[in-house]
Fold this protein.
Amino acid sequence: MNHNHPVFTDNDPQSELVTLNLGPTHPATHGVFQNVLQLDGERIVSGVSTIGYIHRAFEKIAEHRPFYQITPLTDRLNYCSSPINNMGWHMTVEKLLNIQMPKRVDYLRVIIMELSRIADHIICNTIIGQDTGATTTFLYLFQFREHIYEIFEEVCGARLTTNIGRIGGFERDFNDIAFAKIDKFLKEFPKALKEFENLLTRNRIFIDRTAGVAEVTKETALEYSWTGPLLRATGVDYDVRVSDPYSSYQDFDFDVPVGTSGDIYDRYLVRNEEMWQSVRIIEQALVKLKTEPKGIFHADVPEFYLPPKQEVYNNMEALIYHFKIVMGEIDAPKAEVYHAVEGGNGELGFYLINDGGRTPYRLHFRRPSFINYQMFAPMSEGMLLSDAIINMSSMNIIAGELDA
Amino acid sequence: MEETTLNNDIHVKLTEKFGEKVTAVSEPYGFLTFVTYNDVIINVLSHLKEELKFNFLTDITAVHYPGKDHGIAVVYHLHNMVEKVRIRIKVFISEQNPTIPTATTVWKGANWMERETYDLFGVKFEGHPDLRRILNMDDLGVHPMLKQYPLEDPNRVDKKDEFFGR
């Protein structure tokens, strides 16, 4: 049966359409956004997406804050993988300031970014399981997200909205407990992921619910500016980490998984494989760290990197730098810069225009969820309501990133 | 180095095709940037898409420069995924009558990006299939990213723009 080509009959006595408000608060949307759907029985005839329920005007706020105060705003974009957003922002500013990071910092960043990619994909894939009726898988894998948050907590003190790192590096070095926790995670996670895959990947019910549902061709995906796992599931091998390497991703050996049909099953497989690849990257990064000089966790740029507090009180230069950084008086070139990182959902871009003021003249976030989600309503037409729900969870729409 | 030659190549090809309509070419951080005009923007975009293989529309946004003749810059970011080149196109339009043809005829994905730009800056995209506000409520009445709208309560004295360098 082809799900996407419904047959409508004119002689149906119940031809009147039903209007259904899916959202703004609905357990199946996993976020605050609304879809007004016209239903014919269980089939969606048309839909209108309404977003903006948690629009917080970050772009406007960013125009009134010095660079280092914008990091907490980026936390709240895709709050399932905040560190990627934080570091994307740091790297944008570093690109503007022409700061070169030491390799060790790059590798530490890669570890944190890949951990958060795993956390992001865990959420998406377990929730696909949950929405197809498999709560077990959700409970099995979700505790590893908790372990990742424990690592973040050890590195920066926060769990969800991490505000991790700084412009110019990290605020402190990783301690031994953090490395121990990363090692423990790398030991335990593959087993759990294998178990998760055993439960779902060849599961007849799961395949029936997901394979062939919401298929998207490459051409449509590119036409709608899709990026990330969604685009890769359609067969386009575009990954910012490979095409435009940042933070020394070129030093790592990893594969970019692609799907063929772009359906929900392919998206699930692509995300699972990306988790395996992330584990591979983290393992390589830990090996590379051993050859790097110890104790380096930031670039040597005193004019841009906040000095330690005890030096601020005892050292005149440190006090001046501290004051200038906090007041946003750093010497940044008057220029515009675009920097993209591979976020959990796709290309997360920062377009920054600096006019020499204390704050950005303009900062624009290219938010993958926002751009990916615009296809949801058109592609739902003719779909079963229950399929549209899994389609939505497989798109991993994060309301914070959707609305900014 | 390689990128620079590629960028030169694109620049030459664009100048051949559009002559003086392609101006102010620069390369901040290796990112080819140029300015073009309202009347040819769609031709430029579709030429870039069809002939020069810029298959991917990364983003559309706008910037407000108050007090200039053409005070709103609509900024397009395109990406050639095969040759790994990105390009930035700007069109300056007047603040009083901010209209520009829609790019939804070239990429369907431009739809929401243009709605966002309309919502935040009031840029009217002519021919757009569904030009409504997207993030803010319909009866907001203003386009909040324009620079004349202050962020905070105007009665606060500690958050004046002058304290932020402008």
User: Anything to note?
Assistant: The mean pLDDT of chain B is 87. The first strand of chain B starts at residue 23 and ends at 26. The radius of gyration of chain B is 17 Å.
